[in-house]
Amino acid sequence: MADNSGLTGTPLGIAIAVISSFINGSTFVLQKKGILRSRDKGCSYLTDVVWCSGTLCMIIGQVGNFLAYNLAPAVIVTPLGALGVLFGAVLASWILEERLNVLGKLGCIICCCGSVVLIIHAPKAVATSRQELEDGLSDPVFVTYILLVVLTLVALIVWVAPAHGTSNIMVYVAICSLLGSFTVPSSKGLGLVAPDVFGEGQPSVGAVALFLGLLGALAVSILIQFFFINKALECFSSNIFEAIYYVTFTSTVIFASALLFKEWMGLTVTDGLAMLCGLTTVCVGVILLRISQEAVINWKEKKGLKKTN
Asked: Where are the transmembrane segments (predicted)?
């Protein structure tokens, strides 16, 4: 008989994921509106009601995502995040009067489609215990990857962001996306360690130390992300930032989780080729979004032009 215990909460998990996607889609728009309002008033956006409501939406959305991941398979929950990108684009056109041209709209759709392909064919998590998590955290490949991410983040935050952050959207996007290598794996790790810490009996010192370490990594990464997301919203369109951020963040999370939980070992040739196609699609979409910032498209025929003989 098939074991359906993992699917008992799937409908509820999908419902929570859909609601969270719409809430997350409104986050950047409300924060951007609050920043613009505070700029007109000449005060800090930290005191603006609209900005605070956007921050509250971010917290509620992240809590919803955490619940959804524990009630439904990640391959179902994660693609639903694309709904937030599309909802955010609609909301931004209404509240912020931000208009995406044809290239921007096409790039947004292509990014979402490519991300869904990546997620559907991504390797599935296999770690089910604290011991497997500890083995993954001590693996030389994963340790090397984390060290490279940390060094890259230091370079971006200390040197690149002050010089080019306000002129190149990819700087802030890269910082926030690379931090995804800590946020989502830490969340998954906390779910694996929590039963040993809060279960019956006295928890071991190792379990408590691992739990606190993961919790600290999660808190620090979220706070840094929060800071640079608002820095990006001060300078760039919320439409473009949200679409690119969703794509790069999702791709980074998939890669980090695959290394930590050894998910790549179960990757088939078909899934590998599909992920390569999805990554190519995402790259094309990001390029279109980037070009749309400066492109001016006019489909109307210019009037008043005289024909020359």
From this structure: 12-30, 42-61, 67-95, 102-122, 142-162, 169-187, 207-228, 240-261, 273-292
Q: How far apart are alpha carbons 34 and 13 in whole angstroms?
A: 31
- Angle between helix axes 180-198 and 169-178 (nearest 10 degrees) is 20
pLDDT higher than 50, residue 3: no
pLDDT digits (tens, 9 = 90+) for 238-287: 878 887 888 788 788 878 877 887 766 667 888 878 878 887 887 787 77
- Domain that includes residue 104, residue range: 5-306
**Domain count of the fold of the chain:** 1
User: Who contacts 296 (Cβ-Cβ below 8 Å, separation ≥6)?
Assistant: 101
Angle subtended by helix axes 140-155 and 130-137, to nearest 10: 60
Whole-angstrom distance, CA of residue 262 vs CA of residue 109: 31
Degrees (nearest 5) of the Cα angle 252, 282, 227? 45
d(CA 181, CA 40): 36
